Amino acid sequence: MSKIIDGNALANTIHAETAELVKILKMQKIVPKLAVFLVGKNPASASYVEKKKKWAEYIGMNCEVYKFPETITTKKLVEEIKKIQQTKKPHGCIVQLPLPVHIDRQEVLNTILPKRDVDCLTEINLGKLATGRTIFYPPTVSAILHILEEEKVNLKEKHVVIVGAGILVGKPLTSVLLYKEATVTICNKYTKNLKKQTKYADILVTAVGQKDLIRKDMIKRNAIVIDVGVSFKGKKMYGDAEFAKVMKKAKSITPTPGGVGPLTVAFLLRNTVIAASTKE
Amino acid sequence: MSKIIDGNALANTIHAETAELVKILKMQKIVPKLAVFLVGKNPASASYVEKKKKWAEYIGMNCEVYKFPETITTKKLVEEIKKIQQTKKPHGCIVQLPLPVHIDRQEVLNTILPKRDVDCLTEINLGKLATGRTIFYPPTVSAILHILEEEKVNLKEKHVVIVGAGILVGKPLTSVLLYKEATVTICNKYTKNLKKQTKYADILVTAVGQKDLIRKDMIKRNAIVIDVGVSFKGKKMYGDAEFAKVMKKAKSITPTPGGVGPLTVAFLLRNTVIAASTKE
User: Fold this and answer.
1) ipTM of the complex
2) Residue A131 to residue B126, Cβ atoms within 8 A
3) CA atoms of B95 and B139, how far apart (whole Å)
């Protein structure tokens, strides 16, 4: 019988630990504060931000959401983020992605001070991720590593296949896995024969956002399947794996919703508390 | 019949182009200057530095080698590198690796100003490599990309397998190949069944430094084999591939010596000239 990994339960444990840290910080008159910069009216983004705010407040932190119009320029957005960092001094700052296409994404992300960059998306922190000297892992990467720890995986000697080479999951996860000395394959939309790559994976991480992309015949028996992809059909949320079938062949698998998503929120807030605990 | 890639000939073409750029800069009273920081008495390092200096001078650049004793501390080395950058204002700076084990390598590398970091080893430039916004590629990465261009490879849809996940080749090459949208597998010393990974590679890059690691049965027929590994037996230099046999099965292959090495020197000097052309 395959195991369905309960992301909500794992996240609740992390939240409880973080709440304890928040209590300790409050005794020192520090209330951890997360600033979220949200551009435009993407409903999925709005819903993710809502979840982050809800959990932040639930564990005793502050979370301020700064909203900007879809039409804002890169220059103006950079100025606003700088100003808010200087005046409000949040401990953690994130820019909710995606940004409108006319905005220079990396220019905006680099505006965040490295010590406040709790999503780990500034170039300086990506460099530190590459050299293994980072303070923060990207929350999704932490979520995936946490699941693998819970599954008692020794990454050395394991072959991890990642489907999707994006900036939030594929690329930073590769950086970190290379430091953990795993054998890693990264596939993208141009990969000729995806099944040829995925079917040898001890651990398959998929982060595309395409329903039923990963079928049962594409995985190795007893693989661990971590499904980070998100797509919607109407209001219903789907992962990348054909869940009901893939779960029968996998050793363990994350569901969507209730898999990696809740853990990602938990690690974002934990990063913010770490940032708040660090001396200026 | 397989093709042996002539790294010396390719490098000579790059050197000739760089020499032309040097002439143009000299008309503007700029003489491109490379500073090399060399710690200890590793004979291989000394020989590599000698080659860089010889070629720099041959194409009309200056190259100063600053030598430090094996026993120097991280703190002292950092101070010295800072001082030389401030007073001598070289356009490009490199720290010859490896450094003695007692030295904090990344701390020393980060001392180099990003605009002078012609080896692309500072964390800020590694971050820029990860976001695709770098000014300089690491010279070995440029050498490999140049060979693949010469071989008219379209990296999309190709499966590149890299053996060796080090900081000079495996890790930065992975970063760049992900931006080029190749499918990439990275293996290391813990990889369980190396042959299972390598035998599917359209392009095999090996960067280990272990003679005869890559045998004929480990490659796909008509693969391109780029051999970056270097090891010595007496004074004779070897790559990682069992050259005489592998070359019969490969479409093309780099020899050792005379493959990637000379091109790496050529791209280091080209990076230095680019640095010298950039306004302060």
Assistant:
1) 0.94
2) yes
3) 13
